[in-house]
Amino acid sequence: MASRWNSRVSIIFLFCFPELLLSAVVTLDSLEIYTTHEWLTSTPTVYFKCNEEKKTVLPDVKKAHAVYHFKGEESFQPLTNFTSKKCKRCGFYEKDRIKFDDVFDEWEFCPSDFTSPNGIYIHSKDKEFNATFLCDECVKRGAVDNLDGDSHHHNEGHGVQWYIVIIVASIVGSILLMMGVFVAYKYWLKRKRQQEQARFLKLFEEEDDIEDDLGLGPLSDSI
Ligand SMILES: *[C@@H]1O[C@H](CO)[C@@H](O)[C@H](O)[C@H]1NC(C)=O
Ligand SMILES: *[C@@H]1O[C@H](CO)[C@@H](O)[C@H](O)[C@H]1NC(C)=O
Fold first, then answer.
1. Ligand in closest contact with the CA of 122
2. Number of other residues whose CB lies within 10 A of the CB of residue 53
3. Which parts of the chain span the membrane according to its record (predicted)?
4. Residue 56's closest CA among 21, 98, 88?
5. Ligand 2 close to Cβ of residue 122 (< 6 A)
6. Of 125, 89, 95, which is closest to residue 110 (Cα–Cα)?
7. Rounded to whole angstroms, how far apart are CA atoms 27 and 48?
8. DSSP string of 36-50?
9. Other CB atoms within 10 Å distance of the CB of residue 26
10. 83 with 53: CB under 8 angstroms?
11. Quick one: DSSP state of residue 56?
């Protein structure tokens, strides 16, 4: 019961604030490098890195012109994750023992890049590499965004407004209902009092009748 309530709350929450979606995990699906930058050794050390995140070394990638496929469960996976619609500056690099590391490519990696329904995004650079990435959640989020259309932020505002309208309407409805019940109760009390008064008066009249029948006039009061 509590968990169902929680999930309902989180769905409403996500509906109102899509920017705060849970992290969307990105895995590396395949990689082929066309070149190695290292002159002295034949086996390169290739790694992936996004701005201000740690390096992800790809230990299997040793040869150029070989396509490496990944299951997404390797020890270095996931490569990164997106916590908002914001892009990250990421790249593939090769460690260099002497000078600065070599760059295969560095680019703006965005959740919106994942447009194909199977959640795949291919990024390649001539004479450098061809990489495919997987991010299912990015596609789901993209679909939601597309449903909202161009005026995404506008609609988002509407979502919040609807939420407020529903809350205000239910509060006003409750107040009206309580007022209705109160008025009905007051009316019922009034009716009841009137009925009691009528019965009381009737009782007096009956008593007067009995006294008259017994022939007891005002005299009886003085006895
Ligand atoms: C997102 O990725 C960062 C860095 O890759 C990691 O430290 C963090 O735990 C991840 N968060 C989630 C929720 O997976
Ligand atoms: C890159 O790799 C993908 C998946 O292996 C493949 O479908 C695509 O044709 C490749 N692109 C190039 C330019 O080699």
1. 2
2. 13
3. 162-185
4. 88
5. yes
6. 89
7. 11
8. ---SS-SS--EEEEE
9. 29
10. no
11. E
Q: What is the pLDDT along the chain (223 residues), one digit of tens a residue?
A: 455 555 555 445 455 555 555 678 999 999 999 988 877 667 889 999 999 899 999 999 998 899 999 998 999 999 999 988 889 999 999 998 788 889 999 999 999 999 888 899 999 999 999 999 999 888 877 666 555 444 445 555 566 778 889 999 999 999 999 999 999 999 999 999 999 999 988 888 877 777 676 665 555 454 4
Tokens of 6: 């929680």
Distance CA 134, CA 156 (A): 27
Distance in angstroms (rounded) separating the CA atoms of residues 26 and 77: 8
Whole-number Å distance, alpha carbon 95 to ligand 1 midpoint, is 23
pTM of the model: 0.58
Domains and CATH numbers, the chain: 2-134 (2.60.40)
66 pocket-lining for ligand 2 (C-beta < 6 Å): no
